[in-house]
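Hi Prof. W.,

I finally got the TonB dependent receptor family protein prediction working! I wasn't sure whether to trim anything, so I left the full sequence exactly as given:
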Amino acid sequence: MKLNKSIILAGTALASLVSVSGAYAQSTGTEATESTAVVITGSRSPRSIDGALTKENITKSRSTVTQEFIATQPSGQTILNSINLVPGVNFTNNDPYGSSGGNIRIRGFDGNRISLTFDGVPLNDTGNYAIYSNQQLDPELIERATVNQGTTDVDSPTASAAGGTVGYTTVRPTDDFGVNFNLGIGSFAYKRAFLMVNTGEIAGFKSYVTVSKTKYDKFKGPGVIDKTQYNGMIFKGFGDVGDYVSLAVNWNENRNNSYRNITLADFKTNPQLDYDATCTIPKAVGGTAQAASNCGNYFGQRVNPSDTGSLRGKFKYHLTDNLIFTFDPTVQYVLANGGTQTENVNEKNSRLDNDGTDTAGVGKDLNGDGDVMDVVTLWRPSTTNTHRYTVNSSLIWDLDDNHRIRGAYTLDYGRHRQTGAFGYLQANGDPVDVFGGRDNPDNAVTSLTGNVLQNRNRFSIAKLEQFSLDYRGQFLDDKLVVNLGVRAPKLTRELNNYCYQPSGGDFPRCTSEATSGTPTASGNVFFPSTGSTPHIAPISFVKEYSKTLPNVGVSYAIGDSQMIYASYAEQISAPRTDNLYKYSRAAAANSPLVTSIADPETTQSFDLGYRYQSGSILASTALWSTKFHNRIVTTYDPDTLLSVDRNVGDVDMYGWDGQIGWQATEHLSLYASASYNHSELLSDLQLTASTYLPTKGKTLVETPEWTYATRMQWDVNPDFRVGLQGKYVDERFISDVNDAKSDAYTTFDLDLNWDIVPFGLEGTQLQINVINVFDETYLGSLGSTNNTVVINDVDPGTPVVSKSASQPTHSVGAPRTAMLTLKTKF
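And this is what came out:
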């Protein structure tokens, strides 16, 4: 470590500062566009502060962490936790090791509004834009991770990034043969193994394969977290100008029991509250009626299985000396479900015997006792299967040494299948198959006519096409840099609901039973078992969203070590699939289909920043402002499997981000960051034609006003390193009217690393990580609602309402956790 740092410091002292941001880019096209940036000549600062803060030279707010820092974090940890020190970012992990998911926010924007990519591949869900932090690449394979606060790159393949981007890049194979092996143990029976084999160069090609296995107990309540991941890459460079082609593969499997989210009141009385360890299924007895099982809180029925994979290509080629072509194709696969997964079904339910009632008729024997008198608990998964195909390509033209133009085209095509084929439970309450009857006909619950009982049955296509144009110019001896960009995304959602949908309701009715009465003039129908509730018959429809989005940045170098920059960007977040499947239609003839969320969200973001990069200091600060139109707040309810949407209207947001890194000595580095976030809802939330929720002037939910982070790293000697880092998160509101909030909290993490050179073990290290050193008890990921206290203000003429209260549920932060990792390579 001592030697490496000395080389870095000496090298930067002898050379002028050149851009290193190209390697941080999301796509090959952005990498090539930024790779020759020239700014701040003569700077003698280090290129990074132990990987936690890296030199940036682009015309917008950006922060980067590298493998040097990522390697200090717990083995197997999600990369989103490793960017938690970055200003503007707040990530809350659902467990200490990162395999149970979590929640990320950047400048108050949640993960659904942040574009996440690796090697340029979009990772947000095609339907709801969600980010699944537990499915990310093994950290040993990540070269660096970059955060764009508030803006996208001009070729970002997204229709949802209203709040910024996170992109990380994969390490390339090495020139020589080598093996890396990491073995970790820790609290809560944690065990992890990671193996990587580099083949070295063979016939001009370099490649590697990796496998990792992680398994541990939940830190509260019964259950296990189980994750397996495979990766591989083959790479070939050609020519002497950096051209290359690569192909990489990733496969990730998670089989996790879920943690129980709890209310604020539960947290104050019993933060360890979790699911039950056992379940009793009533024994089937012929001739008598059995009630449903009372296992709604059984941990074995709270699971989150997922299989995800990708095949990623990257290609860069100089067509001429000043014309570069890049091409990044990708294929992705997802099979996943989660949340509460059971339903109590009467054996005479009309969906089973098709007679139109739930209390009479033939019925279907579900538990095999020879009668149809029972209520049986069935496994009811909500499964999503996605096949996704993406192309991101660029043509880059250098007009001369100071002017560059890029045109880019993106196609992101996702086939999104949402089903809910019921299955059976075992005697202990566990499901026979976590995916129900989807791929297991013997486990599928069927009606008397042979139809599979379904919770939902949808097929959607999300097609994003985007053209973008980008100009970069350098003026005044390269001191002035101007970026002018525009992108034009067009998202088309094709939606097919094969079930009946309650008009304005949430729960589809997948049935072949006969309708009753006379359909309405608009075609809405009724069922005997649901009374007067109108249902819309199976339907297909298309929604399109498009907008032209400017992306402008300017920077100016002041002397050899300072830079000021300003940027402006417009973004769009189109409605999500589930939002559009909640629709209604009036009874009158020719009534149109009306979706609950009609308009996309849009933002206009401004940044004004300053960077100081000289001597032993890297520092940056930025003032920012965002105008947010048509904001939609979405809260997932694990008990109903529904995402509850609230359109809170327009929001004004502004704030400040700052960070500084100091290489105090050759052996000691210090880092600190701080962020301030102010948000204000500009109107009351309309609930009905004449009633409103008093939200005007309130703060956005789940958004801390202040966050602080710090890290100290001390190389005690060439073989022993100590790191200590901390994060403070301010209070966060959990309701739109700001009548309840979670407490602020501070956590500290410790990392120790020892190169075992004295024992002759070159290339072998022992690393200790302690998470939440002082065992802080706190709430991590939050839920939210309209109001947690009853509102009973009906004063005539004022925009308020009498409204009942509801209590959202939240995730408890991980307790103190220790782990030991042995790292070796040869």
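The first helix runs from residue 2 to 14. Does that look reasonable to you?

Thanks,
D.
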